[in-house]
């Protein structure tokens, strides 16, 4: 129990460390946008300026440049419809409902993006309920939104999170998950333990979220290197993470099939031999090597060599059907990870020891 609590605390602290730059960007950017809107633009209550910074920067991972465009257009739409209707029908509960419904309806017809629609609706709410009598017109609010968006982009450029750290942390989660699935499957084969095989399968089924988080983190990292001059030199290192994105996703998908077949194989008359468990463990260790080498900013030569050694190994004899499928999927994982190290698909496939037609059934390699 204490170990789980400690791991949870470490995970939360790690997440906080990763998000600290975004929190600083939001806090400093919101204050600057407020000051600029009041002191330079002369707007008495520039609510949309700091709000725009928060939406633009956020505290999560996403596409900020697109957010700015959606933000400004969404605010303009919501403010325009809100100002127009409030000037005709006044403010109140039913007026608020009508203003929000019309603003969001028009937004959906123009762009189904969640941020765009939500921003149009929330802007209409502020116009109809909070600020109709502050003396500021719709144009002022649009300018405030644009000001906040620009400040948000500047905050990302001048106070950036490390794109390399973001990509490394999330790819580490993906490769850790892959390594764990393969390790548990290997242990299940060695011990002839159906429960361990079931655990490996359950672990494999929960890995897709890590892949989606990595893809989103990679987009954010690429965006930071585009916006921030401080990280332009990171583009080469980040390219390795881009190369690995699709192959590690495929590797996890193949690992899920492998885990399912491991569970099935342990119920057959001829269970997988220990030599197969050894191969699974070697690929598991190669995944961790890949994680370490990419994290160090190096070419993943050690991981590639470990994978090539597995690819060149002869298959065990006397295998049942499910064991053949496990080997086929493991070969696919090896090809995927070789591609993640930078090899082309054809070259990676050519490294595999040829299989006869019977053993090749079920393989995609």
Automatic annotation (TrEMBL):
Signal peptide as annotated in the record: none
Domain Integral membrane bound transporter: 33-154
Keyword Iron attached: no
Membrane topology, from the record: Multi-pass membrane protein
Coiled-coil zones: 197-224
Chief location: membrane
Keywords assigned by UniProt, alphabetized: Coiled coil, Membrane, Transmembrane, Transmembrane helix
Bilayer-spanning residue ranges: 12-37, 43-61, 68-86, 92-110, 145-168
A Pfam family per the record: FUSC_2
Phosphoprotein as UniProt keyword: no
InterPro entries referenced in this protein's UniProt entry, alphabetically: Memb_transporter_dom
Subcellular location: Membrane
Record's protein name: Aromatic acid exporter family protein
Native source species: Nonomuraea helvata
């Amino acid at each position: 129990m204490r170990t789980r609590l400690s791991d949870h605390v470490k995970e939360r602290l790690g997440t906080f460390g990763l998000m600290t730059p975004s929190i600083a960007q939001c806090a400093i950017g919101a204050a600057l946008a407020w000051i600029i809107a009041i002191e330079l633009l002369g707007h008495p209550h520039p609510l949309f300026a700091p709000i725009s910074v928060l939406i633009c920067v956020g505290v999560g991972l996403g596409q900020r440049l697109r957010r700015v465009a959606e933000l400004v257009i969404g605010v303009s739409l919501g403010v325009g419809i809100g100002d127009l209707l409030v000037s005709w029908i006044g403010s109140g509960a039913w007026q608020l409902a009508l203003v929000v419904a019309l603003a969001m309806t028009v937004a959906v017809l123009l762009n189904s993006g969640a941020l765009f629609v939500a921003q149009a609706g929330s802007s209409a709410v502020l116009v109809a309920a909070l600020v109709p009598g502050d003396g500021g017109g719709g144009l002022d609010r649009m300018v405030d939104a644009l000001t906040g968006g620009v400040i948000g982009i500047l905050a990302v450029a001048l106070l950036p999170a490390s794109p390399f750290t973001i990509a490394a942390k999330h790819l580490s989660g993906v490769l850790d998950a892959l390594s764990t699935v393969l390790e548990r499957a290997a242990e299940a084969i060695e011990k002839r333990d159906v429960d361990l095989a079931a655990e490996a399968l359950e672990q494999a089924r929960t890995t897709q979220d890590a892949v989606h988080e990595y893809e989103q983190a990679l987009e954010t990292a690429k965006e930071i290197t585009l916006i921030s001059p401080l990280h332009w030199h990171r583009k080469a290192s980040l390219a390795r993470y881009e190369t690995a994105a699709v192959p590690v996703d495929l590797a996890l998908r193949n690992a899920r099939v492998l885990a399912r077949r491991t569970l099935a194989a342990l119920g057959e008359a001829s269970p997988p031999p220990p030599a197969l468990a050894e191969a699974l463990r070697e690929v598991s260790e190669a995944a961790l090597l890949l994680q370490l080498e990419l994290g160090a900013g190096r070419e993943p030569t050690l991981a590639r060599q470990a994978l090539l050694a597995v690819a060149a190994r002869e298959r065990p004899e006397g295998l049942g059907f499910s064991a053949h499928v496990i080997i086929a999927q493991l070969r696919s994982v090896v090809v995927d990870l070789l591609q993640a190290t930078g090899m082309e698909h054809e070259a990676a496939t050519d490294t595999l020891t040829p299989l006869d037609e019977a053993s090749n059934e079920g393989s995609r390699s």
